[in-house]
Amino acid sequence: MSDIRSSSGSAVQHGGRLRTELLGIYLNDHLAGATVGTRRAQHMVTTLRGSALAEALEPIATEIAQDRASLLERAQRQLRTLEDLRLQEAQTVFRTT
After folding, report:
1. Is the pTM of this model over 0.70?
2. Where, if anywhere, are coiled coils annotated (predicted)?
3. 57 near 48, Cβ under 8 Å?
């Protein structure tokens, strides 16, 4: 059987069972990159404080931090949804056995 996207496009199915490992890896990697980017931008602003470069970087650093917070919120929401789907799948399996 081949992998397919669910109707929401959020989980990969294989053989009728949800596979969330790849989505988890993707979200974790994306969040790690966003965390590093946030910390680096904030470090540059702090290190260069008082310079024209720091003034230019400050709004960008703020935007990067906001993007990371948004990603974290979405990832947590997505993981809760996936957990709900796993629970529904388990309930279906127990009902049919």
Report:
1. no
2. 65-92
3. yes
The structure tokens listed for 92 are 């279906």
Residue-wise pLDDT for 29-56, tens only, equals 989 999 999 999 999 999 999 999 999 9
The CA angle 31-4-97, to the nearest 5 degrees, is 105
* Alpha helices (H) along the chain: 21-47, 52-96
42, 26 Cβ separation under 8 angstroms: no
* Residue 32 to residue 65: CA distance in whole angstroms: 12
Of the pLDDT bands very low, low, confident and very high (cuts 50, 70, 90), residue 65 is very high
